[in-house]
Amino acid sequence: MMLYTEGLEKKINKQGKTVYFVDDTGAVVGKRCTGCEIDLPLEAYQVHKPYLGRRKSKCKRCTNLYEQNRKKKLKEKVEK
Asked: 19 phi and psi, to 5 degrees?
């Protein structure tokens, strides 16, 4: 589900961390995931209103992997 970026304008946010793409109307239509570095449409991100495009900076897949690893580490820590 990669983003077709032809005809879209590539921009970088003020902090220089998030790469995003806007259409000719100025609407954000996609972002580059900060986890896997793949350009994806906004639908591939979880909704989070304070963020650019009202979406998180990591895609759903990267967020899920992060949460699985975090829970695994917490479980190991509790078992010790």
From this structure: -95, 130
For tokens 């994806």, the residue is 40
The helix (H) or strand (E) run that includes residue 74 is: helix 60-79
Beta strand spans in the chain (E): 9-12, 19-22, 28-32, 39-41, 45-47, 55-59
User: Per-domain residue ranges for the chain?
Assistant: 9-79
CA gap 43, 59 in Å, rounded: 9
Divide the 80 residues of the chain into consecutive groups of 10 and give the mean pLDDT of each group: 89 91 95 96 93 91 96 90
